[in-house]
Amino acid sequence: MQTGTFFLSLAEKLVRHPKRIVFPEGTNPQVVRAAAHYARLRLGPVVLLGKPELIRKQAKIQKVDLDRVMLLDPVHGQDRQMFVDHLRGQAGNEKLRLGAIQDRLSDPILYATLMLRFNQVDGLVAGVGAYSGSVLRPLIKMIPRLPQFSRISSATILECPDKTVGDGGLLIAGDAAVVPTPKAEELAATAVGLAALKLQLTGRCARVALLSYSTKGSAAANEEIRKVTEATRKAQQLAAKIGVKADMDGELQIDAALHPAKAKLKAAGSPVAGRADCLVFPDLSSGNICIKAIQQFGNVRTYGNILLGLRLPAAEISRGADEQEVLGVAAIVGLLAVEYRKLYPEPSAPSDSRNI
What we know:
The protein is α/β, with parallel strands linked by helices. The protein is built from 14 helices and eleven strands. The longest helix has 20 residues, at about 225-240.
């Protein structure tokens, strides 16, 4: 399996601070190969959930060994009773039968989420064999949200062969997976989340473009355009508040954001136009369609979706992800676990992120 420059840079950092990743879809062929590769590179221990005999059978079919890989059947997990007690406590006044709770814990994605919640693993990667909602629901319910982020969103990393694009060929885009029709403050939170993620992965400050079909008033003003310009202002305020250094600008069309010559024509003087390395889509439809089109037609390696705004690192990956994407996403999640508090510094006092 060929690996790109971006993955090699991740692996070089992570091997010095190995992190344990749980994969709830432990019998999936791509997951088994990626997990074995992650462990073989000594990026950290791996936990595969599922019936051990089926995981071993799949590993044999895939011709990989399972050194440094823990096999765990959620039905017989040693921490099952602790998880049962936690779910009972969460239910509050709702009377849940023990059998119903036991049935819920047989879901490997829920079990993996609770492993993350109770710090038994450092990160979670799921989604190759499940619908997005099946991965996102337990994570959003069980993992606390960072107070300065109004809603969970996501990021996709794009490694482009054209090194003049973004930051040496690296682009980070969002949200293409979670929020269908984001409000201005939610777009702002995504923008800051992308900037913080870029800083953590590369050590360099981001140039964030909030995208629209208009550039600096080139189209008649309406609610959609006003939402993006308001989001830009809120993003700048939020970034300053929590100490994330980045240049941010919007509204920008995607060509104005990425193409220097077109940027001079459409947005002269912008600190971001023509040089953007983070892209904020105005809604889920545009983001998802754009990322899928790039995957279909472009010679671009993608890694996603990294979830933004959770207190613990996790990723919801596409059912179309191959081994290299699963491995790359696991490395990203592992690296985020190294210094997650530095990535998303907590404010000195709790604040309501809805008032950004």
